[in-house]
Give the backbone structure.
Amino acid sequence: MEFTGCKLEFKLNPQSPLIHFQPDEAGATVRATELKPKLDKFLIEKFKRKNIQYKAWVSKENDNTKAEALDYKVRISAGATLYKVAVGISYSKKKNTTESYSIYYGNMGDDTIPKAGIISYPIVTIICFKSGLREQIVRYIHEFFYVTNFGTMQNKGFGGFLIDGDTPSEEKLIKAFRSKGAKGIYRMDFKGAPISLGGAEPNYAISIKMFENIKRFYSVMKSGQNFSGFGRGYARSYLFKYMHENFEIDNEKAWMKEKGISPNVEINHTRDVYQENPRPRYVRALFGKGDKVDYFKNRNLRKDEKVSIEIKSNTKSIERIPSVIQFKVIGRYIYILGMKVPEILYDKEFVFDGYTKDNKLRTPSHQDFEKTAGEFPMKDFLDKYVDYYNGQCRNDLNDMRRYEKVVKCE
């Protein structure tokens, strides 16, 4: 792929639905206003690591109060083929009905205007008048799409694209993921891709299965999961289990119940009760802080009988940090990437505005991880979690047997 004069034009093939904030807009697709800043950041990080002098390529129109912008323009058109995928609703041709499913973490919209996934084949045009910058764009543009998603819920695998004609080997993908900073790399194989390169109607069944697997893998890992199918049961958060057994750090869920911040309701299981809870920390924040957490008030499991607990911090920059567990759908595979926990997340105080009272709790500090050089050991954690997910968790819970096993990528 090369520029023709100052113009580079290429088609993108979607790998997963893009959750769009205006799905009914004519020509809805990935936005140039999202793609260009991400490509700028990606390229500048490459330039800094490789000691490439790039200041002459920075746009003179750049506002010094914002991130550096490189001197090129991007235009994107939606292309001729477009599919709209209702988020949280599946259409059954056989039954001629729509059915609700929860793979997208709920509708993520109100009852009248749910968000939607867009599957499009956009045409991207880049205009650049600086020859040196053109060379760097061509060199790294494929890798950029290997590691970048777009739109809402992008860390959960939505909004992925590859350049038309590019079928990267797993070796090339792993190299790109490691360059991005992945400490652990894993994948699931679905024996078939959900989206056709030729623009034929997507295989929604495979797409649904992929995102069901992403949700299950992430839920069991971070927060635990109740299973309501055959056999019922409960998988306790592996993150909490790992922290207690390896660092003697206790979790915020038990602390919240002890302090009366959340209701103490057990469902489908008898909770592992440790004799003491002497070192509670806001453990889940290391994997991405939420604005709130919901708990059932009682065993009825009614949605209108939930209580929401707000979680607040005085550090505004924490709100913009992406999850350290990222998912990338490429062809028939889901790649799972474990990134380094950002420095800013250690030893930060949060206020839990609770059910009957509020209280404060800090995230784990560097001192809590003294035996692992002061950092959360992401690769060790994920290696052990994948073994648990494929083994004990699958054996203990009948429902788990319909989910794909996870393979470690070496």
Q: What stands out?
A: The helical segments are 32-49, 131-147, 170-180, 204-222, 238-247, 252-258, 378-390, 392-396.
